[in-house]
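ESCALATION

Customer reports they have been waiting on this structure for their group meeting. Please prioritize. Original submission:
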Amino acid sequence: MSAFAWVNALGGLLIVTSTMVVLARSVRKSAILYALQSLVLVLLLVSLAFATDSEVLFMWSASAFITKVVLVPSMLLFLQRKLGADSQDLGERLSPFKSITLIALEVLICFAAIQGIDLYTAAEVKPALAISLAHFFIGLTCIVSQRNIVKQIFGYCLMENGSHVTLALLAPQAPELVEIGIATDAIFAVLIMVLMVLRIYKIAKTLDARDLMELRG
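Update from on-call: job pushed to the front of the queue and completed.
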């Protein structure tokens, strides 16, 4: 099995783990599954590094492990512990069946969209590229389908993971400065969102997005 084949296979596993994150019933389970998905992302980057002989991608995968497998899930688990029982499942706006159907449709649309892409760097990894693009829409699905604003943070995280993989597939020799930016953006974004959720809960005493609609205006 070639390195590029491993990249595409791990891309398929990303979809499975992303769907599990969207469907998870608790914040704790979502955080654990997100850490698992990020580990798959790290393995994908390592496989791509071997396939393209890119030293930058090896460093990229190491920074992704620290930030996405360790730090981001730790912050979300910290938030879950701070909120306690109030962070548990509030139900979904979309049923699991509708969410899975929507995710499958998003993946199919992205597979159709990338057929017109004719780049040398993407020639061997078109399936993984389609999946990485689909993660943007899967993240939106997570945001739209969840009532719990903590769970909606995972939607952003999935979108960010998708952009992470897309850039790695299209520009495996990207300079170190880009790597540093990608390694830190998720940390600061999630940190800001965690602080905002804590502030919202302190003031509104709710994590239900429907209840927060009353704050408009």
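Sent to customer with the following note: The longest helix spans residues 55-83.
Escalation resolved.
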